[in-house]
Write a structure and sequence with these properties.
The complex is a heterodimer of chains A (136) and B (80).
Chain A lengths: L7 H6 L8 E8 L3 E2 L2 E10 L1 H18 L4 E6 L2 E4 L3 E9 L2 H18 L2 E7 L4 E3 L7
Antiparallel strand pairs in A: 1-6, 2-3, 3-5, 3-7, 4-6, 7-8
Chain B lengths: L1 E6 L2 H7 L3 E6 L4 H12 L9 E4 L2 E3 L10 E5 L6
Parallel strand pairs in B: 1-5
Antiparallel strand pairs in B: 1-2, 3-4, 3-5
Chain lengths: 136, 80
């Protein structure tokens, strides 16, 4: 959980392991439109203690399910303008299949169950909470 | 009566008009407490689309509440 931009290179270097033969990352960016509405930015809120434990649980599940060496995830909190990186996932693995699979699993699970909410700010001046991923 | 610490997020924060509050309640489960708060704050989200966390851990809606518990109702999440 980061309140300010994070140097992605630093996160990535932690995954440079001698046993890794492949690295896969995913970045989620703030997009300029959603459902046809012009977006100026997104304010991310989190229930931090639970977001951190749930995020850690997801990384541990990914490590158990996929043949990977290590995985890291970062999520920004606060107001982000269009183009900023809201979420970053990095996975290092001996082979690419596991790296791709784990990366996909981690972002999907973050979106499904980590208590983070985005409030979109629209160019027209209003705001709206974005619905809604399955929380089961 | 139990003293419960509540924190609100997203739509529930907007509806309650505050980020946190302390309430005394006779509600004995998280589900009963949410029903009580719906009447007070006009929450419109259905528990069926939410989860609940007690003391910063997800728990079942029928988990008994204890004096001093910290309760967060989790609206549908939208990170990423």
């Amino acid at each position: 959980m980061a309140d300010a931009p994070v140097a992605i290179g630093v996160l990535q270097r932690e995954l440079l392991l001698p046993q890794a033969g492949g690295f896969c990352s995913f970045e989620g960016w703030v997009r300029q439109t959603n459902d046809g509405r012009a977006v100026s930015g997104i304010d991310y809120k989190a229930f931090r203690p639970l977001a951190l434990t749930e995020g850690q649980a997801i990384l541990e599940e990914a490590t158990a399910r996929f043949a990977i060496c290590a995985a890291t995830a970062m999520h920004r909190i606060g107001y982000l303008a269009v183009g900023e990186t809201a979420v970053w996932i990095g996975v290092a693995a001996p082979h690419r299949d596991a790296a791709f699979g784990a990366c996909r699993f981690i972002i999907d699970e973050i979106k499904r169950r980590v208590p983070i909410w985005k409030q979109e700010h629209y160019e027209a001046g209003e705001t709206g909470w974005v619905a809604c991923h399955d929380v089961r | 009566m139990r003293r419960i610490e509540l924190e609100y997020f997203a739509q529930l924060h907007d509806a309650a008009g505050c980020a946190a509050e302390r309430r005394e309640t006779e509600a004995d489960t998280a589900a009963a407490l949410y029903d009580e708060l719906c009447a007070i704050h006009g929450f419109s989200l259905s528990p069926a689309c939410m989860r609940v966390a007690v003391n910063a851990a997800f728990c079942p809606w029928d988990q008994p509440l204890r004096d001093g518990d910290h309760v967060v109702f989790i609206p549908p999440v939208s990170g990423g």
